[in-house]
Amino acid sequence: MKTGWHKSTKSSGANCVEIRREGDQVFMRDTKDRSGPVLAFDVDTFRAFIADLKEDRSDLPAHGSD
Q: How many angstroms separate the CA atoms of 25 and 66, rounded?
């Protein structure tokens, strides 16, 4: 299964992301830099990521913090 890029329905203003699914992989990129880096997740990890966002997991440490 391969689909094109889709803008998040939760995007607002300049804070937008797009996702694309290919088979069991989900890719995410910043709409401001479409030729920039792309994050890749397996489907289960992406679902867990979205579930954590929906739960507002602000208790998790920021990337790079100890």
A: 29
pTM for the model: 0.69
- Whether the Cβ atoms of residue 24 and residue 14 lie closer than 8 Å to each other: no
Task: Dump pLDDT digits (tens) for 12-24.
Answer: 767 788 999 999 9
Q: Dihedral (C-alpha) 28, 29, 30, 34: value to the nearest 10 degrees?
A: -160
Task: Please state, in angstroms and rounded to a whole number, the distance separating the CA atoms of residues 19 and 11.
Answer: 12
Integer Cα distance of 53 and 37 in angstroms: 21
Asked if 31 contacts 17 with a C-beta cutoff of 8 angstroms, the reply is yes
